[in-house]
Amino acid sequence: xxxxxxxxxxxxxxxxxxxxxxxxxxxxxxxxxxxxxxxxxxxxxxxxxxxxxxxxxxxxxxxxxxxxxxxxxxxxxxxxxxxxxxxxxxxxxxxxxxxxxxxxxxxxxxxxxxxxxxxxxxxxxxxxxxxxxxxxxxxxxxxxxxxxxxxxxxxxxxxxxxxxxxxxxxxxxxxxxxxxxxxxxxxxxxxxxxxxxxxxxxxxxxxxxxxxxxxxxxxxxxxxxxxxxxxxxxxxxxxxxxxxxxxxxxxxxxxx
Length: 256
Fold this sequence. Notes:
Blueprint lengths: L1 E6 L3 H15 L3 E5 L10 H5 L3 E6 L7 E6 L4 E5 L12 E6 L2 E7 L9 H22 L4 E6 L12 H4 L7 H12 L3 E2 H5 L8 E2 L5 H4 L2 E2 L2 E5 L1 H4 L2 E6 L15 E5 L1
Parallel strand pairs: 1-2, 7-8
Antiparallel strand pairs: 1-14, 2-4, 3-4, 5-6, 6-7, 8-12, 9-12, 10-11, 13-14
């Protein structure tokens, strides 16, 4: 089965690209981020017409996550993370599909740093880690996938110098990501491409796509039970080059 994480950067603007991807690739499960749509304006009918059930956690104008499953409606387990009652951002949605637990994650960007946005990012990562431990304890095949807004290693970016002051690559961001992995999660893309140099995001500015000046911030983390089923992982890079595409490319893992 093919599981995909895809930051669409506005589902209304990218709907033709999303429907195109679903039609051509027919993934089994897709986690969307940054849908930038309120719950009542999510284009579920267009998605359902292609045979996909959907659950979504929207927010007008920004954020927003969704889970799609081919041939069925995902069973919602949780939306949002505990630990900060005043946090109303739509950034986490957890569902079950055929005995597999999947979460769509849109982690805070954190820029500019230092500052309150970066502090919020680090708090959110700690809240995610707390919940992730409970998921591991359940010993159920689980995949935490999404836009983590973290560049984990120097070889996950086209230029360490260009990204040095960005919140995505600060030591605190990287340390929080490593602590999450240390719980027992497997970074699927890194496992299949251990030498780095695989990008999932190319900015719209400064000809980043044309120069292949990208970096890796979309990750699929596997619990031990899911990691045992790992076949392959990669990036459907060509979709980033299509007309009016998202600045992210669909990033995927195949499990038996």
